[in-house]
Fold:
Amino acid sequence: MKKILNIFLLTTLFLTFGIFKMDAVDNKKLSNPSNEYKYEITVTQKGEELGKIKIELFPDKAPKHVRNFDSLVSIKFYDGTAFHRVIPNFMIQGGDPNSKDKPRETWGFGDPSQAKVPAEFNDTKHVRGIVSMARSNDPNSASSQFFIMHGNAPHLDGQYSAFGKVISGMEVVDKIANLPRDKRDNPLDKVEMKIVKIK
Structure:
């Protein structure tokens, strides 16, 4: 009986050590965004390319949001979605699945069945070029919609989960932000995106 108990304890310690070791490796991987979490957003309007925006994510600041975004990109979730809300000197927002094929008046409301990501507020400032996650009044309601800062908005600091930044293509963000739009800040002609992970 004592021998069985000792084997059980050794097995438990081994498994526990293995799990901690695996977590340590994962955390180390998350702390180096420049090597693993870069993406290219190709933007088109009426079949013509407006340009490409390259972003780099911050897994050390918002690991759950980064994993969520990465998993959505891997299944091509964002392809065909729109930048449906654009406000000059503030931000451009997109990534709502409704914007693929549902009526315009539903764009921005999202799909209630989407998985939610808990808030990861951090010390990243919402300045021009920062990528952050959109949400409702519930801080833990982020799903797939994100926004790219066109200007600075300190009132968003600590209220929204910033999880990345633009590393090239801010001129494309400028172009999108200044497109003609309706009273809901939706560009008159749909602005589509396609996102791929890059090395």
In short: The mean pLDDT is 87.
